[in-house]
Amino acid sequence: MTETTERDAATADPTATADPTVRAAAVDDERPLIALSGLCVGYRSRGRVVPAVADVDLAVAPGETVAVVGESGSGKTTTAHAILGLLPAGGVVTGGRIEVAGRDVTGAPDRVLRGLRGTTVALIPQDPMVGLNPTMRVGAQVAEAVRRRGVDRRLARAEVLEALERAGVDRPAVRARQYPNHLSGGLRQRVLIAIAIAGHPRLIVADEPTSALDVTVQRRILDHLAGLVRDTGTSLMIITHDLGVAADRADRVIVMRRGRVVEQGTPADILLRPRDPYTRHLIDVAPALSHAGHVVPRFTTVPPAPELLRLDGVGKDFRLPRGGSESGDGGGDGGAGNRTLRALDDVSLTVRAGQTLGLVGESGSGKTTALRIAMGLERPTRGRVYLDGEDITDASWSRLRPLRRRFQLVHQNPYSSLDPRFTVAQCVAEPLVSFRVGDRATRAARVRELLDQVALPASYAERRPAELSGGQRQRVAIARALALEPALVLLDEPVSALDVSVQDQILTLLLRLQRELGVAYFFIAHDLAVVAQLAHHVAVLHGGRIVESGPAATVLTAPAREHTRELLGAVPGQRFAAQLARSDSAHTADGATIAAAAAADADDADAGATGTATATAAGLTAAAARREDS
Amino acid sequence: MLRYLAGRFAQALVVLWAAYTVAFVILHVLPSDPVTLQLSASGADIGTLTPAQLHLLEARYGLDDSILVQYFRALGGALHGDFGMSLTQNVSVSSLIADKLPDTLLLSAVAIPITLLFGVGIAFLAIYVQWRPARVLLARLPAVGVSLPQFFVGLLLIQVFAFSLSWLPATGNSGADSLVLPAVTMALPGGAMLAQLLTRSLADTWGEPYILTARAKGLSRWATQLRHALRNASLPALTLLGVIVGYTVTNAVVVEAVFSRNGIGQLAQQAVLGQDVPVVQAIVLIGAVLFVSVNLLVDLLYSLLDPRVASAARVA
């Protein structure tokens, strides 16, 4: 506790915050492991250098966990790669100094940097699905990292198994012999962690370690990583777009935007007394932080509405390939019959007109199968599907086709769901063309109207998907889904591929469209915090069965089942609220003091932001107080 | 896996049968008269024979049967390795092939490693080398190799290494040193194509995230490229290699002509010029067997190199 006090004292001193090196030294006698001063990085493009990172000062002390937060394009990954000397082709350090373990490595040759990689600074790369060599056994890939420490080939095997085990990989001896395509995303992430710790590094840089994973897996992985770092005294640098993750895990948070550091400090500092408007914005959009670590359903009362789509006792079995299941994990549970996989079992769902049903579950729980059956793309093995009261279970393609005007789909990944050769206007007009709605002129008018509805400028009509950001692409996909004025839009994880701040914009857009157009949503997600913002009704799917369903207000605030509670507990941002509760009781007898301080602080800021800061502070303190009580 | 193998094997047999049949049909609609050809080969003139004698000859070779009967007889023979008699030389086709095939196979066996060495070596260095001029040179070199006609390269090599330097013999089948120039000539276009494909493939692979993982472990560029990039990049190149090896007979025609070597290529050239239908038919079948078996091998290698292919095959 004394250390915390020291740290807080150091942060309170304004000069210390300005120079992180000094501050880190105040916390710990040792010199910082990493010290960046005035770092500038650019990318060469057509003879010009486009700056990506400008004037970044950053230090990581031994044993410290630092989170770098920012949206995509903010330069956080570029900064991390610059430290390791692993900038992609065209990337150049244009200014400043990089010190690793007290040694100036600015512009050092690859040979020198190579000596530091893996053993001094290890990297856990971004996407676990593609971060491992697909043609090499997992064990061999970990062994390469072990052997970097000069371990003899014969002894390496034991160390590989140990590293895998410490990274939380089950049955390490079996896993070591498998190829990455046999492992689930979570396991692959653990293998990447094993690779990182196998070199016994002093600092681990984790680049978006969990963005591609389910919330529950995400929490388990982050817990595990935090435990490893604590046990071995390793420093950790987490790079994330989610302020909730950062607040939960880090001793210090650094907020980056457009290649610059806009703010840094302890999580409490950043969350309770944000000085920069961008930080305030990030707090607002983090689903859990904006409600003080609680998942708060938006719709507390649900008006009665006619039924639109109903799945009645739907089950689906998939035949497994001969030669047995070698997938090893994930989705394999619930297999009932001979060589079949029961993907769905007795699933009943109802989507009501103008309202949203949120279907929540981890990957492999059967969400996507349910969606495909609802769309008539897959025949259920048992049960019936009704649209507008009409049984469409066995409807032929040609009978279903006119009905497809009534329901449309928005995919998870906007980067791959738009034809790269189509213009935005062509993408949006395609459903109209395919159902022969209107002529050229009316279609063009409809496209303009749709783009306006999804808040894209009309000038974007002639652009191609590659020129748009992820959020803009998802707006185009939504416009396309709305083109035929469907009664129901099926949303397959529509925001999970996007940054937190962009997620918020898309969710707000979806809410507005529902209000204006009265469209119903069948919304699939793995993150309850996202579902809470959109859903009237929630159903929780686990192992192909609905474990809990009902109005959002009931399921999210008074969950009856353990699995629902687990999903709720995995939403990032809550740990911070709990921590705050503990530290509050240590520092200030009354939680309200911080709120008051925050309010006083906020007086200096502009009026609009004041409300936010105060509300957040008050909310977090209130949460802290509640937890104290219980 | 076994089922996959059996399926692929059945497929290969169908391809072989189709190649044989198509060749048979095409060769039999061509305007030529086997009896005339055979007579002129043995030095007799067709004018000296009476129609009755001609008819007797036709009956002896089964040429008076319907085309269908002739087809099935030929197919049955081919299945037993009997391709009939050559029309221009008074020996069986099988013995002609047995005489010529080893030379071509030897040439090919030397040429293929050279192809690999050219292709993989140039591509690997083009990506590995950091010094920009060398990098550009290595990346452009294969384009030159692809665009040079094979016969021209052969003549050029003869001019330099046989005539000017007198290091190696220009022609003939005698000794190991007579293999060098033909093998290099045969390997060059394939090697250049392979280098082009592999350079691009390696460059793409170099941008994959798992390369970053490997580099972040502290592996050297050499180790990363050798252990992580090359194997993944070699998958598309493997398909091309299959095609290149499959073209051995075609390549042999040019190379064996330029270097006056014995072999299947030379035999093919003579047989086509002399309208020796049974020989051409047999060579077509040999080419097809080579093509099919090499591609079968490539498919199997694919599943060895890439475990994802192996699982896909198991599901299929």
Automatic annotation (TrEMBL), chain A:
Comp. bias intervals (Gly residues): 325-337
EC annotation from Swiss-Prot or TrEMBL: 3.6.3.-
Stored InterPro entries: AAA+_ATPase, ABC_transp_ATP-bind, ABC_transporter-like_ATP-bd, ABC_transporter-like_CS, Oligopep_ABC_C, P-loop_NTPase
Compositionally skewed regions (Basic and acidic residues) per UniProt: 1-10
EC category name: hydrolase
Signal sequence annotation: none
SMART domains: AAA (SM00382)
Domain ABC transporter: 36-283, 309-568
Region (Disordered): 1-22, 319-339
Biased composition range(s): Low complexity: 11-22
Alphabetical keyword list: ATP-binding, Hydrolase, Nucleotide-binding, Transport
Protein name in UniProt: Glutathione import ATP-binding protein GsiA
Automatic annotation (TrEMBL), chain B:
Domain ABC transmembrane type-1 stretches: 101-302
Domain of life according to the entry: Bacteria
Membrane topology reported for the UniProt record: Multi-pass membrane protein
Keywords: Cell membrane, Membrane, Transmembrane, Transmembrane helix, Transport
Pfam family, one: BPD_transp_1
Subcellular location: Cell membrane
GO cellular component: plasma membrane
Transmembrane segment boundaries: 12-30, 105-129, 141-167, 179-198, 237-259, 279-298
UniProt main location, coarse: membrane
BP GO annotations: transmembrane transport
Family of the protein in this entry: Belongs to the binding-protein-dependent transport system permease family.
Listed name of the protein: ABC-type dipeptide/oligopeptide/nickel transport system, permease component
Organism for this UniProt entry: Frankia canadensis
